[in-house]
Amino acid sequence: MKRLQYLLITSFLITLFSCTENKKSEPHTDTMVTDYKEQYRPQFHFTPKGNWMNDPNGLVYNNGQWHMFYQHNPWGNKWGHMSWGHAVTRDLVHWGEMPIALYEEANATDADSTMIFSGSAIVDKGNKSKICPDGTGDCMIAFYTSHVHNKGEGIVQHQSLAYSADKGQTWAKYTKNPIIDLKEKDFRDPKVFWHQPSQEWKMAVVLPKKYKVLFYGSKDLVNWTKLSEWGGVGDISKIWECPDLFELKVANEVGVTKWVLVISGGHESKSTFGMQYFIGQFDGNKFTLDAEETGQHYLDYGRDFYAAVTWNNDPYKRRLMIGWMNNWDYANEVPTTPWKSAQSIVRQLVMYKVGEAYKLYQAPLREIESLRGTYGGYSDLELPCDPNLFSNIRFTSGEIQAIFTPAEEVGVEEFGLKVFQSKDASGKVVEETVIGYDPNRKEVFLDRSRSGRLDFSEKFSSRDVAPANLQEGKINLHVFIDESTIEVFVNHGEVVLSSQVFPKMNQGGIELYNKGDGRTVANTYNAWSYNSTWDALK
After folding, report:
1. Which of 63, 128, 396, 440 is deepest in the core (most CB within 10 A)?
2. What sign results for the dihedral spanned by CA atoms 58, 61, 64, 66?
């Protein structure tokens, strides 16, 4: 098993670094022009104007704006030349793209450089650290991994910082970088946050191949002391990266809080990359898994949700998360141009006690409802029914809320929604993505095996499943589709599946279906097409 893990990790890293482009020959993001109407371009998920994007980085609120930085190749549509792109929003729905914040640092040759890998950002109120050289105003500070490589071969990774004295408009790298250097080839992704009880800044950072999270503390954001390390439990089928650690109140248990440690790398489907989380306590020095916890929980059961992290400083004290909607199995090959990859919609995380256990729920923000356009819907609709009932509203970007009840205990094999459906001239369905529920297996699933383009990767076609029980005899599916993305929130976010699809046709058909001899009732079916968030930028 250890040899298999090593081969998987080695194969992943070889693929990753072989994508580095040695010649910066493609157009730079800042010079590109787009109308945001390209095939597969999401209309309410953030995508860069052009070129490659992966992990969200540096999520922080400051001066009326939520900032999002992201792993970005300013010169190409595949992974390489990692820099920090930058976008801002005032409502967590409409995004404005900013100039590149932090560029890859060239060394002796173009093939020998220091890339700007993933990290986080904070606001130092009043510039107490004196990292910003001028004035006493607030100082924004970004922590990132310096990835030193030569011709694609990693040499060392250490932690560095950059700062902005003008509210994130421009950035400068700290002249005394690195701030933490263990002389490790793989040591990355610092998440920094303020810990109020100890009056100290904390950092969670990982040793990916050792499945360890290291915790550091600092008073001045420059000098860091190692506090503890934790790991080696849960899912170690993949590397560990992109840690996040935060405290949440338990929504239905007064006075109780839990700490959540999020790690990217594991997925219930062992053949793919995903995310896991652990529930426990953090005392300011070390993280301890709760005694009743047996290990990890999976954050998303779809194939395309990775490297998700949360915002610092949300003014409403919410814990907000966003993730990269792609998968390293085929990320470089997805058929989009001139951009590559989208970020998910923003999700709010809430902790609930369910029975004797605790569970993290994810919910779409209410703000996204501002995009609702044309509406169509039914109530108490018995399935199966005439598919033509749903022809009054068809879309490729929008929202669906559906609540189903299997009306008979036997005979119902599965039921649910079909989206991105297209038919040929004879009326035969030729492509669709199925979001369904199997009441016998107690599983919700997302089947993209007939979703459209599958030819770019043999690993793309999939039928992904997640455990889900009926609640008071019903299953609740809240679905967001957006040209090439699908996010499914099951039972108010108890389970989530996120995936990409690439339909060849663009008919936007939607259908409710029932399979088997038994009956199913769609208690509620509400559907809205969505207006584009890009209109203000055109």
Report:
1. 396
2. positive
Same domain, 188 and 291: yes
**Cα–Cα distance between 364 and 348 in angstroms, integer?**
6
**Which residue, among 26, 123, 4, 129, has the nearest Cα to 80 in the 3D structure?**
26
Q: Count Cβ atoms below 10 Å from residue 499 Cβ, excluding itself.
A: 26
| Alpha-carbon 309 to chain mean position | 7
Residues linked to residue 496 through DSSP beta bridges, in sequence order: 489
What distance in Å separates the CA atoms of residue 411 and residue 515, rounded to the nearest whole number? 9
Within this chain, do residues 392 and 351 fall inside the same structural domain, yes or no? Answer: no
CATH number of the domain within which 440 lies: 2.60.120.560
Q: For position 385, what pLDDT does the model report?
A: 87
Q: With contact defined as beta carbons under 8 Å apart, do 258 and 278 qualify?
A: no
322 lies in the same domain as 375: no
Catalytic, 138? Answer: no
Output the pLDDT for position 18: 40
CA–CA dist 124, 133 (Å, integer) = 13
Confidence (pLDDT) at 174: 96
Asked whether residue 176 is assigned to any structural domain, the reply reads yes
Q: Rounded to an integer, what distance in angstroms lies between the CA atom of residue 265 and that of residue 333?
A: 20
Domain stop point among 329, 364, 399? 364
Q: From CA 91, how far away is CA 482, in angstroms rounded?
A: 19
**Number of structural domains the chain divides into:** 2
Give dist(CA 442, CA 338) in Å, integer: 41
The CATH number of whichever domain residue 180 belongs to comes to 2.115.10.20
What phi and psi, each to the nearest 5 degrees, are found at residue 198? -95, -5
Two tokens at 66? 């939520």
* Residue 273 and residue 138 in one domain: yes
Q: Coil, strand, or helix at residue 252?
A: coil
Residue 162 lies in a domain: yes
Same domain, 251 and 360: yes
Query: Can you give the C-alpha Rg of the chain in angstroms?
Result: 23
CA 102/CA 434 separation, integer angstroms = 41
Residue 402 and residue 512 in contact, taking contact as beta carbons nearer than 8 Å: yes
How does DSSP assign 86-113, residue by residue? EEEESSSSSEEEEEEEEPPEE-SSTTEE
Residue 131, domain member (yes or no)? yes
Residue 536: predicted pLDDT: 67
Report the predicted TM-score, pTM, of the whole model to 2 decimal places: 0.94
Residues of the chain with pLDDT under 70: 1-25, 107-111, 409, 536-538
Strands (E), 387-474: 397-406, 412-423, 429-438, 443-447, 463-467
Supply the pLDDT for residue 224: 98
Give the domain range for residue 83.
Answer: 2-23+49-364
In terms of domains, do 65 and 142 share one? yes
Q: Identify the domain boundary among 312, 346, 364.
A: 364
Which residue in the list 30, 55, 112, 186 is annotated as catalytic? 55
Identify whether residues 345 and 199 lie together within a single domain: yes
